[in-house]
């Protein structure tokens, strides 16, 4: 069965973005960009919601470094507000329930799936028990005053078993886990 990977980039304090900061918080170094260029999970279908689609396709249209890799990837956008045709290449709009659509993709499809951003979608997929792997790339900044989109607000309790870790450019941390949604704190 294809896997589903949740894939986040975050500040150390758990924000997905921050007002006034550039993409990757301006810290994308050559090792990290090279790794992105190698297209890890490049054969995976990318899942995202409307907000992430708007932001990422805007970055791509502006030529933001690191987004060129995404142009050739197959992308599924879950939205009830966007309409076709989508302008970002290889993007398909799905307006049905994302949980059921992803469940069907995993059961009947042959390609593995991964997310980009899309905090609400990721939270719903995790709650539904559909996530096989959870990857977080942590950038060494704290954006307490300007941070937007706290990633883990509204998440259930989740146990994480480390699968892999890596450091890029002496400062950016990649952490990969197998998640297990808990019914509450251990021992309760």
UniProtKB/TrEMBL annotation:
Gene Ontology molecular functions: 5-amino-6-(5-phosphoribosylamino)uracil reductase activity
Domain of life, per lineage: Bacteria
Pfam families: RibD_C
Segments passing through the bilayer: none
InterPro entries: DHFR-like_dom_sf, RibDG_C, Riboflavin_Biosynth_HTPR
GO biological process: riboflavin biosynthetic process
Record domain Bacterial bifunctional deaminase-reductase C-terminal: where: 3-173
Protein name: Dihydrofolate reductase
Source organism of this protein record: Actinopolymorpha singaporensis
């Amino acid at each position: 069965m294809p896997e589903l990977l949740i894939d986040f980039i975050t500040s150390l304090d758990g924000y997905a973005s921050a007002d006034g900061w550039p993409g990757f918080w301006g810290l994308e170094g050559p090792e990290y960009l090279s790794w992105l260029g190698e297209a890890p999970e490049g054969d995976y279908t990318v899942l995202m919601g409307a907000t992430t689609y708007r932001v990422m396709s805007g970055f791509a249209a502006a030529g933001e470094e690191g987004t060129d890799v995404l142009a050739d990837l197959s992308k599924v956008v879950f939205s009830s507000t966007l309409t076709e045709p989508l302008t970002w290449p290889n993007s398909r709009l799905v307006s049905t329930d994302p949980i059921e659509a992803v469940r069907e993709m995993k059961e009947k499809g042959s390609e593995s799936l991964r997310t980009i951003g899309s905090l609400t979608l990721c939270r719903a997929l995790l709650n539904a028990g559909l996530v096989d792997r959870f990857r977080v790339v942590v950038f060494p900044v704290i954006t307490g005053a300007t941070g937007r989109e706290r990633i883990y607000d509204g998440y259930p309790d989740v146990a994480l078993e480390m699968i892999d870790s890596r450091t890029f450019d002496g400062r950016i941390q990649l952490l990969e886990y197998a998640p297990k949604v808990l019914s509450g704190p251990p021992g309760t």
